[in-house]
Design brief:
About 70% of the residues lie in helices and about 0% in strands. By secondary structure, the chain is mainly α.
């Protein structure tokens, strides 16, 4: 699962320290990265500095990032606003700075060591990029798309030392075996009414027990 994140800069920063201090530093830097990335992204949307700061605080201290502090999910998700910023700049400015921001965000997400977060970030970022391109002229879209491919290629090249061994080892893991032989064939659909009922646990995660699970009785809207 790549979780040691040996190539992540937060890991390097903590190497001279004891384990407890290094772990604390990693979590602190994750909050700082989320704050900085969120502030720059919201500021780029032409919001005021105060509104941008409020948005950044909301992102950095959201349930997901705080719940997974100390795990690879938080440093993987923290730079997501930077990715959105870079993609927006690619669609709008189409310059080397936009390529650099996008590449840097992708590298930080990749070396954090959580493959699913990387998938989620790239998928959501792709939708955001298409939205940003919607109002552009055709010629501008082609240049923006070309630069996005450059950023992606640079990120893949810089993180190949992480991704290639991971891809090679993945088919031999218990995780892969479980997901491919059992989980892929499990019936996951639920009736519409039950699915709508479960949304309350998404919007108010701690009002129904453990976040993401709930404590409603079996057969009702919550998870059993």
């Amino acid at each position: 699962t790549q979780q040691p994140a040996i190539f992540h800069p937060f890991t390097w920063a903590g190497m001279p320290l004891s384990l407890a201090h290094a772990w604390t530093l990693e979590m602190t830097l994750g909050v700082f990265l989320a704050l900085a990335g969120g502030f720059l992204f919201f500021l780029d949307l032409a919001l005021s500095p105060v509104a941008s700061a409020i948005g950044a605080i909301g992102w950095a201290f959201c349930d997901y990032l705080i719940f997974w502090a100390g795990y690879p999910l938080t440093p993987g998700a923290a730079p997501f606003p930077l990715l959105l910023l870079g993609l927006r700049r690619l669609a709008r400015d189409r310059d080397a700075r936009a390529v650099g921001i996008t590449t840097g965000a992708l590298v930080l997400i990749t070396v954090a060591g959580h493959s699913e977060t990387l998938l989620h970030a790239v998928a959501a970022g792709g939708l955001w990029f298409l939205y940003c391109l919607a109002a552009d002229a055709r010629g501008a879209r082609i240049r923006a798309l070309a630069l996005s491919l450059v950023a992606g290629a640079l990120a893949l090249g810089l993180t190949a030392v992480v991704l290639l061994p991971h891809v090679e080892a993945l088919p031999h893991t218990v995780e892969y075996f479980t997901r491919s032989t059992w989980y892929a064939h499990v019936h996951k659909s639920r009736p519409l009414g039950e699915a709508i009922g479960r949304l309350q646990e998404v919007f108010l995660p701690y009002a129904f027990g453990i976040s993401g699970h709930g404590n409603s009785p079996a057969g009702q809207s919550g998870y059993s």
